[in-house]
Amino acid sequence: MGKAIKTAVIGAGSAVFSLGLVRDFSLTESLAGSTIAFMDMDEERLERVHNLARRYATEMKADLRFEKTTDRKKALEGADFVINTALVGGHEDQETERKVLEEHGYYRGLHFPYHQLKLMLEVARDMEKLCPDAWLIQSSNPLPEGCSLMTRETNIKVIGLCHGHYGYRNIAKVLGLDLNDVTFQAPGLNHCIWMTHFEYRGEDAYPLIDEWIETKAEKYWKTHVPTFMDNQMSRAAVDIYKMIGLFPIGDTPRAGGWWYHTDLETKKKWYGPVGGFDSEIGWAQYLDYLRERVNHIARVVADPSVSVTKEFPPVQTDEQQVPIIDALVNNNEGRFQVNIPNNGVIPSIPDDVVVEVPAIINNRGVQAIHVGKLPKNLMLHVIIPRISIMERALEAFLTGDKRILLSIFLHDYRTRSVEQAEAAVEALLALPFNRDIAEHFKW
Amino acid sequence: MGKAIKTAVIGAGSAVFSLGLVRDFSLTESLAGSTIAFMDMDEERLERVHNLARRYATEMKADLRFEKTTDRKKALEGADFVINTALVGGHEDQETERKVLEEHGYYRGLHFPYHQLKLMLEVARDMEKLCPDAWLIQSSNPLPEGCSLMTRETNIKVIGLCHGHYGYRNIAKVLGLDLNDVTFQAPGLNHCIWMTHFEYRGEDAYPLIDEWIETKAEKYWKTHVPTFMDNQMSRAAVDIYKMIGLFPIGDTPRAGGWWYHTDLETKKKWYGPVGGFDSEIGWAQYLDYLRERVNHIARVVADPSVSVTKEFPPVQTDEQQVPIIDALVNNNEGRFQVNIPNNGVIPSIPDDVVVEVPAIINNRGVQAIHVGKLPKNLMLHVIIPRISIMERALEAFLTGDKRILLSIFLHDYRTRSVEQAEAAVEALLALPFNRDIAEHFKW
Question: Domain tally for chain B?
């Protein structure tokens, strides 16, 4: 038997995420007796999640307790784990912001994550008072910025989680490999991870990728109709691989260089007819997909006669939150992909930059697997520029120095003049939902 | 009495530089008995310098010996000091290259210093065999790239020298300060140095700059007709100062951000009617100025009846080479501005990056004055991007990996597409004088 623990979920109104969490808890017997405290500012969404969770646990006969509150402090009190999945403002504000910035020449926008960083830091600071020994599992973006910020500014133990590293499975699938015989390693920064190792039945499988590129890729790109999620084997991914020498994994092919993203036509060339996850087409598909999942949940919530376990079968999700909690609490050791402060795991990245690396987790805690030096070309071409973007965002956030906010725009490849950058900054700060950001920044 | 030493001058055909060196040697009695070995590949220019040097020493009654050779190894043999002032290809090739790159959208060009780096490394490697204990005083550009390369790849002791730090004198002059009562400190990377300290009669003199900006700058910019050299108090310099909080010194205002340099009109706005040192107007003035000085020397060389000390009065130059040699050999200690490996002098810059810092030099060697942390905004906005440019150049040079050469162009703010970058790289490598570079780089 395991130990009953309390997990607070911040931003629990995200029904898709919370449902997955309940599913995984229900399937983890060693965490029986545990409490999940759902916290969200939206009472309606909160009630929906609470309804669903109780029904799910009842049908599963799982020994779980659920609390719901709009008071963050109440949720955090006495928590052993805090999962922060909150997205401040939601997707609507981001779309508005994007439109305004596109008018200033920033195709697809340029997001400064002020609200996310502010919330993350507030949660971590509240934890220092209310549950200083709890683990914070950060589950919303941006992870490099947010986790670096929290681990620099507070004493809270932070783990950032994403699922992009599962992208290696798409590679295996396209190559026709049996997933059970595939091993891989893909360290880096979140959304910027690189497959340093890829083995099939114990042998280096990179030659299989090279062969696929040589003999099958063109046909694949011509015949395969990708969804917005399908960036792993795109032309862009292969081009990035050629440039760097390591395959970009998961969300990594979505970025890789501004030159893949100058306009929709260019995006289509590199990512297929949808233009990739981040094009206007791909992103709209993504939002539709989210809406569809949320609607499905809403229909189930509205009808108490429906069996929730029939609608959402009790199969372990791919999410790492619950297995990691189980590893930490019950010593059910596992190997995970986590975002934690570098501390020498990747030499020549500063210690206090949060990197995404493999780690062994058990009741001793989180122990990263030493990655070693990444190729210098990768560092220069991608990693260092990405860290610079992070550092500018954090410095702007922490100082409220408007010059640094301007500097972020001046260093963007779409900027053609100081005047353009200045106008974009002012337009960003003039948005009603950015009033607090406007007040934060001074010349 | 001092010690007689041998100094080899590589690229000695640069008459202006060599004449200055002879002047300083002639005025430094503690180095009497010394030998200067002029080396250049151009026999005519070599002979001109040798002629001038002998006449100068004779008129000065200075006890100096001069050798001349086109054989680098012969010059290096037994040298105590090696001054490398060579510029491979000269300014003509650079102009040709610039024109070609402008056709591809790179206004004022994008120079990859392959030939300079190759020569520098060859000189340092020759020194390892022929004079392993000698000091190498690197006196031609690019210093960060070249000195970092040589100190990483060889065991030679390297000091890089420039005179940009004297820019603080222009500030003092414009402010109407007595130079004797001014002290300053301006560390950073070569051509990217920042006035961390500026005192007048023992008190912080930054308020005097602020007052000048507030009350006199506009009038100065409207009435003062600048030459190409006059960038120190330009609108650009003041704007950079506002952005960073430290005044940029010497050559530093010439860069500071791509947005000051998008076209001639923009350059004129920021640097006055000449458009600054690096505009087509400013650079042409600079080349005229060099030609005029060379012609002056040529006229003197051609007429043995002319008194060289009358034409070039025996006043100590501003160059640091001879005073540094004197400090190292004769313990005539001084404080200098040198380019040396960082080794912790500026925290958060890697140890093996050559920085420009103040140093005490005496017979113990070169001991940097610990600078301490530079403002984070300066690091993020300027220093880290500058180091990235250096690291990409060195990695491209060392590996011959054409992808990294392409990456240099892709990370340039003038690039609008991959195709443009690729075409520019090919055009660069197709130039006749770049044939060896084309052979060096492979996909």
Answer: 3
